[in-house]
Amino acid sequence: MSRKIRVAAAQVGAVHLDSSRSSTLERLIKLLHNAASQGAQMVLFPECAFTTFFPRHLLNNDEELDAFFEHGEDVTQAPNTKRLFDEARRIGVDISVGFAERTSDGRGFNTCVYYSATLGKVLSKYRKIHLPGTIEPFENPDAINQLEKRYFEPGDLGFKAFRVPHLLPSALKASSNIGTDSNGKGDPIIGLQICNDRRWSEAWRCYGLQGTELVLVGFNTTSQGSELWGQRKSMTAEESEQEALFHHRLSMQSNSYMNSCFSISAARCGLDDGKYDLIGGSAIVDPQGHIIAEAKTKEDEVVFAEIDLEECRQGMEKTFDFARHRRIEAYGLITSQTGIVESELLSP
Question: Would you call 128 a catalytic residue per the annotation?
Answer without folding.
Answer: yes
